[in-house]
Amino acid sequence: xxxxxxxxxxxxxxxxxxxxxxxxxxxxxxxxxxxxxxxxxxxxxxxxxxxxxxxxxxxxxxxxxxxxxxxxxxxxxxxxxxxxxxxxxxxxxxxxxxxxxxxxxxxxxxxxxxxxxxxxxxxxxxxxxxxxxxxxxxxxxxxxxxxxxxxxxxxxxxxxxxxxxxxxxxxxxxxxxxxxxxxxxxxxxxxxxxxxxxxxxxxxxxxxxxxxxxxxxxxxxxxxxxxxxxxxxxxxxxxxxxxxxxxxxxxxxxxxxxxxxxxxxxxxxxxxxxxxxxxxxxxxxxxxxxxxxxxx
Length: 296
Ligand SMILES: [Cu+2]
Prior knowledge:
Number of strands: 11
Structural class: alpha/beta
Strand order of the largest sheet: 3-2-1-5-8-11
Strand content: 15-25%
Bound molecules: copper (II) ion
Number of helices: 6
């Protein structure tokens, strides 16, 4: 009776496992994993993630393999007797302490290497100051006399308002488009200096593998170098709950070839000179946060 019940339970469990596997088979397997991204660092972070993942898989196979083998081989129905004399073994305890410590030390080596590369701000080709505001971003190309605000595109902004009569489904890239995208060259190491004018924001573009807080009175740094062949548009969002319109300050980055970027920069410089935009006129942060420091 008991056996029949257990068998039915096992059959049901196996059936549901197959149902889950069948549904996963229809899904895109790539969507289950972290994305590789388009920058040097994002690929390194992805590589580290996969290395540690496969180590964990190997550990899981060994541990569960031994466990399942023991459960099957030494089951009571096969006449196995529990060993009640073994209550403590110093040798075993030393072994199962040393092995995990060794594994953690081995994992720390590639991790520390990647972390050091993330913090390496040397050989930078372009510096861009990013300032978060409620609820927009300001980009200042340091030393290039170019700065501008980047806010949610008008059609998205209209569609998000109740009673606007605009159906969000008709708006392309709803809530993910801006009026002035950030433009950067591919293949150049770009340092972003992040700060904020009012509350804490966070600048995050998933394809770049980088996310960091933009804090009033502080300057945080990240660097990004997009692969030369990965031209295109990349999107992100503020990743810090910064207020009621937190969801309405997207980030759009257009990655251009160096020649296209130079042409864009020259056009922007001419346009801003004509409009009388002083190079540092928009640096409200300079007066708002005189004690700005580099956060280590
Ligand atoms: Cu924000």
